[in-house]
Amino acid sequence: MKTLSPLERLNAVKLFLLDLDGTVYLGNKPIAGAVEFIKHLAVTGRRYVFLTNNSSRSADDYVKKLSLMNFPVTAEQVATSGQATAWYIAKRKPGASVYIMGTETLRNEMSKFDLNLLDESATTADFFVAGFDTELNYTKLRTACTLLDNGAVFVATNPDLVCPIGGDRYIPDCGSMCTMLENATGRQPMYIGKPHSLYIDYLRETRGVSSSNLVMIGDRLYTDIALGCNASIMSICVLSGESDRAAIKKSPYKPDLVVDSVADLVGMLG
Fold this sequence. Notes:
Distance between the termini: 23 Å
Number of domains: 2
Largest sheet: 6 strands, parallel
CATH architecture of the largest domain: 3-Layer(aba) Sandwich
Strand content: 15-25%
Structural class: alpha/beta
Helix content: 25-40%
CATH topology of the largest domain: Rossmann fold
Strand order of the largest sheet: 5-4-1-13-14-15
Order of helices and strands: HEEEHEHEHEHEEHEEEHEHEHEHE
CATH superfamily of the largest domain: HAD superfamily/HAD-like
Shape: globular
Low-confidence stretches: none
Oligomer: single chain
Radius of gyration: 19 Å
């Protein structure tokens, strides 16, 4: 069988998976040519999904943000790690009892998957879910420890240790919150979001595509490109965000293509 070149593989893609910050926008400003690239995908009949690890916000939140920047987008074209986590639990045990250490937005997002969501008074649960909880308090942490000590399955939406907030500043993300719980309970979570391939399993099933028809486009080597490697799908690293060519050379995660920005891909698509 003939081995396809990266360009041939790119033109065979049916569903484009796109990271957000650093890939299609920076903060609240679209990257030059990114809106035109997304419109080109739409005009040529190619499907796309914006992919985020941020479980503190909903797909609808991202639709609003992207729409304000003139990206053509619907809720079906956004996937969050919170959605993927709810899907994983619902497949493993329909109607499972779940306590979520997360934002009210995450609870609302996961409530759409026919799960039995518990409050802070719970002492047992089928699953305990840790998210990027910007509303975290000690009551939630105590409930989390009780549930984990009593045998709840430990699942986390994403492994990110920090979330950037601009000006080279960061706040603790889901991974750091899980580290606290690991130290307190000795339990370790199963992570769902990038770079773990369960995220791709969720997209394959819910969007009806095979691995050979997918490409992951992003700027972070240890999340976006690592996801492509872990899930055995094509990956493209853009240099509009965090990574540069020196970092790519040193990284164990190698993309199939490297471009300055998504705008460069328009000319590569037939």
